[in-house]
Design brief:
The structure holds two protein chains of two kinds.
Chain A: H1 5-15, H2 21-38, H3 73-77, E1 83-84, E2 87-88
Antiparallel strand pairs in A: 1-2
Chain B: H1 7-15, H2 21-34, E1 41-44, H3 46-61, E2 73-77, H4 104-111, E3 115-120, H5 159-166, E4 173-177, H6 183-189, E5 192-195, E6 215-220, H7 223-233, E7 263-267, H8 277-292, E8 296-300, H9 305-323, H10 341-352, H11 355-368, H12 373-397, E9 400-404, H13 420-424, H14 431-436, E10 440-447, E11 453-460, H15 465-479
Parallel strand pairs in B: 2-3, 2-4, 7-8, 7-9
Antiparallel strand pairs in B: 1-3, 4-6, 5-6, 5-10, 9-11, 10-11
Helix pairs in contact in B: 2-3, 5-6, 7-15, 9-11, 9-12
Chain lengths: 95, 491
């Protein structure tokens, strides 16, 4: 049993998702079920195996260092929930 | 509509001036309106589609066509960013998002003159196998069991894309596939769904779920149409650093259904007592058919098959938790007011994401967190290497692998299991293909005793889409599957 109330709330903090009390029980059942499912991998020997992060065997290409005019401040801010001049506005961070 | 159009058949009708783009686009917009109950579309681009269709007709008159397929209307999964058209990923958190840029794939479609009818419903952030996780509600499968009037899931996550093709709400559609999201719904709806090799199609401008697994691909009525649409959307894109520099082929032009001398592998690990008899029979019949058509059937082993799904449910949530960190209420999407910055983040994400997305973010955060990273994330990546090497070995012996696409045919919306792990099992046959980065296609083979489509999956080695399509075409040509759902929503 990995996910109890305390560890779930901590996980929620890490993931920046608030979890209400009425959701805790179901969530704990679901996540424990998923964890139990993936835990079956523990029985497989992998000491001599290298990890694969990406299936494509290709060197990352370097693009030409060209100037273009896409992504203007105006474009980037277009969907901002709150903006002022050329800035995103967020709740006050420093007192 | 008298006949079901395909990309191929419409191209001929348009060329011979038997129909105009505006006429055919209007016809499909009418179908969409009449098929509203199916809930396939999140956004219908009525006005834009008609304007674009008129422009296409003008191009045809002035012999200035963008491609042979100029003027054909398609549907686009609501995961592709489309300039000026709402792109939601079927999530509340993006429900007001209007991109000011166009994904490479949809740009390629526009460059070929295809008309977008609108954005197709899907599971939220493409996480799901039933389309039930969509903020905009379930899509209904156009198919119904002969024994019941109950509504069935279309599969997912590209449920809207598959259901819309099956019910003639578009000629063809674009989907994405991270663990089976094109092939599984194609299987549930009697359509053809192709997941290309990782890197074959640009991911630029597609809402990211699990970046090392995501691939866009076509859902169509025929294998020929899949080849046509793959020709249009694939190729190198400098905006996606994981897009392959391998030159693409002319898949449609080079389509060749001769499979004489080919070796087709049947993996023993995919056999199961739990497989419905009708699916097992279809699988056997298809192997026989390929044998009769000149191929050699070879028993093979993919020993780590059963480890693919648990590995996937570590890797995909891990990547999702990173990718979805961007939804914080600052730059775009939903913002819920909070007492301070952290409170704003937490409330925004709590209200903006649905339950399945939250589960995956939390699991992903867990497997990446200090103390668990090696035991889960690195472990899963090592398993991924084992799965990949299974296929490397297999493709030394065979040209293609034949399996069922799904462990069942479409099931009732009301019968979706409440345990998430039970739902994950829907993708048991499709997930290994994503982990290994291979191309896979689901084609309809027959209908089961309830008159529901059974899909079979073909898999080839990386970047062997041509071979994949050739074998699929061979099967299609031989069986000539032509079942269509009864259009109950018109009554």
């Amino acid at each position: 049993m990995e996910f109890d109330k305390k560890s779930l709330l901590k996980l929620g903090k890490l993931a920046r998702i608030s979890i209400s009390d009425d959701k805790l029980n179901n969530l704990s059942t679901d996540l424990n079920s998923i964890l139990e499912f993936v835990d079956q991998l523990k029985d497989i020997k992998t000491d001599q195996v290298d990890p694969t992060s990406n299936s494509l065997n290709q060197k990352l290409e370097v693009r030409d260092d060209k100037v273009d005019t896409k992504n203007s401040a105006e474009d980037i801010l277009e969907n901002a929930p709150e903006k002022e001049m050329d800035f995103f506005v967020v709740p006050k961070v420093i007192e | 509509m008298k006949d079901s159009y395909t990309l191929k058949s419409l191209a001929v009708l348009l060329e011979n001036n038997k129909i105009s783009s505006k006429e055919v686009t209007s016809e499909y917009l009418k179908n969409i309106k009449n098929g509203k109950e199916l809930n396939c579309y999140n956004t219908i681009s009525q006005e834009k589609a008609l304007i674009d269709a008129e422009k296409s007709d003008e191009r045809r008159k002035s012999q200035n066509l963008r491609s042979k397929y100029d003027g054909i209307p398609i549907g686009i999964k609501d995961l592709f960013c489309t300039k000026g058209v709402t792109t939601t990923a079927s999530s509340k958190i993006l429900s007001n998002f209007i991109p000011n840029y166009e994904s490479t794939v949809t740009q390629n479609c526009d460059d070929a003159g295809l008309i977008s009818l609108g954005k197709l419903n899907c599971d939220e952030f493409a996480m799901g196998s039933t389309n039930k996780t969509s903020f905009f509600g379930s899509v209904k499968n156009p198919w119904k069991s002969v024994n019941s009037d109950n509504e069935l899931v279309p599969g997912g996550s590209s449920g809207g894309s598959a259901a819309a093709v099956s019910s003639d709400l578009c000629v063809a559609s674009l989907g994405t596939d991270t663990g089976g999201s094109i092939r599984q719904p194609a299987s549930f709806t009697g359509t053809v769904g192709l997941k290309p090799s990782y890197g074959r199609v640009s991911r630029w401008g597609i809402v990211a779920f699990a970046s090392s697994l995501d691939q866009a691909g076509p859902i169509t009525k025929t294998v020929e149409d899949a080849a046509i649409l793959l020709d249009i959307i694939s190729g190198h894109d400098e905006k996606d650093s994981t897009s392959s520099v391998n030159p693409k082929e002319n898949y449609y032009e080079n389509l060749n259904s001769d499979i004489k001398g080919m070796k087709i592998g049947i993996p023993k690990e995919f056999r199961s007592d739990k497989l419905p008899v009708s699916t097992q029979n279809s699988w056997d019949e298809c192997a026989n058919l390929l044998k009769n058509n000149g191929a050699e059937i070879v028993d093979i082993s993919l020993p780590h098959t059963m480890s693919a799904l648990p590995a996937y449910y570590i890797i995909a949530p891990a990547e999702a938790s990173s990718n979805l960190a961007r939804y914080d209420g600052v730059r775009y999407g939903l913002r819920v007011k909070g007492n301070d910055l952290i409170d704003m983040y937490e409330k925004t994400r709590s209200e903006g994401f649905g339950d399945e997305v939250k589960r995956r973010i939390l699991i992903g955060t867990y497997v990446l967190s200090s103390g668990y990273y090696d035991a889960y994330y690195i472990k899963a990546q090592k398993i991924r290497s084992l799965i990949k090497s299974d296929y490397v070995e297999a493709f030394k012996k065979v040209d293609a692998i034949l399996t069922p696409s799904t462990p069942s045919t479409a099931f009732e919306i009301a019968n979706e299991p409440s345990d998430p792990v039970q739902n994950y099992l829907n993708d048991i046959f499709t997930v290994p293909v994503n982990l290994a980065g291979l191309p896979g296609i689901s084609i309809p083979f027959a209908n089961d005793e309830n008159n529901l489509p059974i899909g079979l999956q073909l898999i080839t080695n990386s970047f062997e889409e041509q071979k994949l399509l050739n074998v699929a075409r061979n099967i299609e040509e031989t069986i000539n599957y032509s079942e269509t759902p009864e259009k109950w929503w018109l009554k």
